[in-house]
Amino acid sequence: MRLRKIKRSQASGWRVIRRCVIFFTAICLVPVFLVFMVATDHYVRPERHKLSFTLHKSFRDDNDLHSNPNNHNFSMVYKRLDQRRRHLRKACHILGLDKNGNDSLHRPNSWEYLVDQKHRLVWCNVFKAASTSWMYNFNILAGYSPYFLRKSRTPPLTLARQKYGRPTLESLQEALEDEKSVSFLIVRHPLERLLSAYRDKIQYAVSGSYHFKLGRDIIKNYRKKGTAGPKYPTYPEFIKWLVDSVKGGKPLDMHWTPIVEFCTPCMFNIKIIAHTETLEDDQDFIIKSAGLQDVIKPEWKNAGKGSTTAHISSHYSQLTRSLILQLYHIFRFDFELFNYSLNGYLEVGQPDQDPSTLLAAITMKDTKPNSIPHIY
């Protein structure tokens, strides 16, 4: 009997200890979980024009919509594009990005724009956002024949600059102020654009090129010795290098630098903000608005490496959630200005082994919120 009582007493003691462990674990983890849910709500919930916008004067007379044979679809696309334009202007103002300054966010950059004065077309060449397609169209408008463009070994951008040159700030502003001009920008989800740049410039880098040598350096510094891997940097290796580059204050490559710095859209009045997600309708609208439907057509050219969208889950599932949040911080102005969120990205990320790392990424803030993003 005494033996049974002792065993029951021991079992009861272990139950008490186990309950205490569970209780204190819950006390420690629940606050972290709640902070994660609340803080990341901003990242995963896209903004849907919560603020009331003031209508701007349309850049085309509304009567033009009725002259189009497919005017219902044309009108819907027009409204969507007008919403994006108004959202951009409002977000620029709220974030303080529409004020002149001395840094790369507040200093107008006309360098990357192409201005076709003959056809009154203005475009900022955002790499990895249908840039190949529209560089081809601008070269056609410049007078190059399709046959010449197929056979030429000169880079399309070089050919275009030979015809259009680099606009001065004054000439760009003059072109944008022309009521009959069609100015546009094509944007893409920041993290999909980043993945596309990695696949094109790092994974499939041309042997001996600048990006090929960069890949070798990344492997040398970010791959553990004796670890097997491909001849090019893995996506986690590339992203860790990128985050460290930003931490070190190094300038980013033009193929993945944020659009907010590359084109400074808050400094200019751009009429059309096209998205790659709706590119078929958007570029059709651009071409018809410019009256160029008999000269150029909607294009979707790529380097033949397949759809980047299909690789999003497989590549971002290799990253920790804290690393994904740090990427959000680097591209946060692009997320805000063009109304993107982390939906579909944060969910596939790997849980961080150290909760404090994730918490630090969640609560990461800038002391100057409208300055160039920094990672601390």
Distance between the termini: 64 Å
| Gross geometry | globular
Rounded mean pLDDT score = 84
Number of strands: 4
Number of helices: 17
Secondary structural class: mainly alpha
Please estimate the helix content. 40-55%
Largest beta sheet: strand ordering:
1-2-3-4
Order of helices and strands: HHHHEEHHHHEHHHHEHHHHH
**What is the radius of gyration computed over CA atoms, rounded to a whole number of angstroms?**
26 Å
Low-confidence runs (pLDDT<50, min 5 residues)?
Answer: 30-39, 45-67
Please report which band the strand proportion falls in: under 5%, 5-15%, 15-25%, 25-35%, 35-45% or over 45%.
Answer: under 5%
Biggest sheet, in brief?
4 strands, mixed
How would you describe this protein?
The chain is mainly alpha-helical and 376 residues long. It has a domain at 75-312. The chain is built from 17 helices and four strands. It has a four-stranded mixed sheet, sandwiched between helices. Helix 5 (131-141) crosses helix 7 (156-164) and helix 10 (210-222) packs across helix 11. The radius of gyration is 26 Å and the shape is globular. Mean pLDDT is 84; it is low at 30-39 and 45-67. Its main location: Golgi. This is Carbohydrate sulfotransferase. The chain crosses the membrane at residues 21-39. Belongs to the sulfotransferase 2 family.
